[in-house]
Amino acid sequence: MSGADLTPDEVAAALATEGWAGFALLRRYLADHPGESRALARRLRAGGWERRADLEARRVRFAFLADGSTANVPDALGLECLARGVFAASYHAPAGQISREIRDPASGLWAHRPDVVVVAVSPEPPSETAPYAPPRSDDEFLSSLGEDLRRLRERCEGVILVHSFLGPEFRPLGLHDGREKDGAGERYARLDLALAERCRELPGTYVVDLARAAALAGARWWTLHKTWFLGGLALPEEIVPSLCREYAAAGAALRGLVRKCLVVDLDDTLWGGVVGEVGPAEVQVGAGHPGNIHRELQRVVRRLHDEGVTLAINSHNNEEDAWKPFQSRPEMILRREDFAAWRINWQDKAANLRELADELNLGLDSMVVLDNDPVTQSWVEQRHPELHVLPARDPLDMLRSLATSRLFADLSRTAEDKLRARSYAAARHREREESAAVDREAFLAGLGLVVRVGRASPELLPRLAQLSQRTNQFNLTTRRYTQAQLAGLCADAAAEVLYCACQDRYADEGVTGLAILRREGREWVFDTFALSCRVLGWGVERALAAAACRIAAEGGAAALRGEYIPTAKNRQTEWFYRDLGFSPVAAGGEGSVWRLALPAPADVAPRWIRLEVGPAR
Amino acid sequence: MDPPGGRARPVSIGSLLGPLFPELDRPLRADDSPATLATWDSLKQTEIVLAVEEAFAIDLTTADIVELRSVGALVDILRRRGVEVEI
User: Fold this and answer.
1) I need a labelling partner for A611 at 20 to 30 A (CA). Which of A72, A347, A461, B58 fits?
2) How far apart are CA A566 and CA A476, in angstroms?
């Protein structure tokens, strides 16, 4: 179905069905009908997807605390969320009631059990409904807001997003504003800095850059907009979609919906022109228009790679031709080594994408496609609605789209992200050795694997939260925990949060596994057992299980129980507990429960792994 | 599209604003106002202004919005601005 023929009714009907098809159709509708998002949102308000089997797993609960009304947020937020595969459920606290809502245990805020709380306050809210009346100094405002945030963080298990501040349009000092310490420019810069410092001290608390959102949206009259005076709306209409994109990205990340891999086309994407026709010397990349746009695009892609995004190529070309610009054009920023996998051939690009996903051991729902050809865009999206296909055709639009899409934005940013890119390169070296080694065990022994397992310490929590939220394939129960929830479990005497880190001759993989044990009398239970797919196949999961058995036995457990809850993605873990020697306790359509008496009869850790069990890393 | 030999049919205010009052089980009337419609509060007023501005690509002035206290008043405002509408 082509996007131009789509109707809001068809989008709504597709959203009522499980899976990705509805989300992809919605994105197509929005791309092909610019300016009609309000009409679509109105149609979608009627709902109709309540019976979707995966609705609960995809629902994100947002709460808004602001010094004005946020009634113009839900439509735009709903669309931004659906574009990422989640459904928003919003609570809007009464305007100006931030402190009360946070302090009152019976408030709507707490009843809503939010996954994401947005705090939008201003040191100088325009006119009557001042939240922190009477007027206060900036220091008083900051300490009051800081105290609110601290209390909110204490009780809230979700993510907190705090708006930064925008100064007033009215600058009575004129040019002198910049020369005075109490000029609005410097004053607001100080306020923003102080807010950033406070938020940095609170886990899971992030600043939303309001000035950037306003600039992207072209919102010119920040404090003087019609809808503030008319309806007390805290946010001008133009800015709402770009802010909602930030909120939605956080919500989707909480549900494990973060894109990890960017698949790029080559011709008219990484460079201008078709290399097979004009030759490597003539493709446009580097100084001068439009080669400078393609070079800038490469710089942006390279930055994503530096932050841990895996890169792949899907291109219709003769492979030999395609690598030539990488070899002979010094203006190229991306190198062949930056790509973890490629399909450069004349096959169907949708089939290529499937193969790339398999080769990289990633789901199609963690891939983003950047390809200038609109026919390819809509074809691969129809074949694989799990993909996020950027609708850009012009290289300048591609740049804008990468700058604003927020698809790779994860909530925790960890050292492991940066290691990941190198890890894929290391994987290729391992594969070469594996094909050389006749015996797999000899090969694994040659890797010199060291696995460390211990109790989680606070500095590991961001990474462990990321593992909890993003791991889909080797995840026995797929329970998602935020950093704050993990911190709570660490403090809980009836729970153990264990990390697993590993390294081999080729790479330090960092923290790649998470196990959560809960004490239930003399039997302990695996609440969570998750392992990054990067280290699958080496026996690391057995080492982590062995360490958990040891820790449970030392803690006085007589037996350990494990649960398998099936999802669309974790089939490979179905028999994990059986293979470790656990006996079945219960099984059914909803999964299975297994039990092992402790101490374990035989150590389940593989011989080729050196296992170190100890306290925090 | 214009019917042959005739003028364009005026846009219906009722069908433009109807979706903003989903609880109403009858068409909007000229005398509908905050007095007859309980949900016509300041937020609804804002939504009406935004819907009208978007539909007709115009910018309502503060005086227009102050005058906009009923469906009939909106029709008058729009006619004055050269937008032919019916209820």
Assistant:
1) A461
2) 8
Question: Which of B19, B46, B54 is opposite residue A233, by nearest beta carbon?
Answer: B46
Q: CA A150, CA A164: separation in Å to the nearest integer?
A: 17
pTM of the model: 0.74
Per-residue pLDDT reduced to its tens digit, A300-329: 999 999 888 999 999 999 999 999 999 999
Which member of A69, A71, A230 has the closest CB to residue B65?
A: A230
Q: Which residue of B has its CA nearest to A41?
A: B19
* Shortest alpha-carbon distance between residue B51 and chain A (Å): 9
Strands A116-120 and A609-614: unpaired
Give the 3-state DSSP-derived string for A248-277, with helices as H, strands as E and coil as C: HHHHHHHCCCCCCEEEECCECCCEECCHHH
Cβ distance of A231 and B65 shorter than 8 Å: no
Chain A residue numbers touching B43 (CB-CB < 8 A): 69, 71, 231-233
Q: Which chain B residue has its CA at the smallest distance from A37's CA?
A: B54
Which pLDDT score, from 0 to 100, does residue A413 have?
Answer: 65
Fold of B11-86: 1.10.1200
> Cβ(A192)–Cβ(A214) under 8 Å?
no
Q: What is the ipTM of this complex?
A: 0.77
Q: Give the number of other Cβ atoms within 10 Å of residue A103's Cβ.
A: 14
A141/A138 Cα distance (integer angstroms): 5
Tokens at residue A464, please?
Answer: 């462990």
pLDDT in tens, A402-423: 998 899 977 766 666 656 655 6
Nearest chain A residue (CA) to B66: A230
User: 3-class DSSP state for residue A388?
Assistant: strand
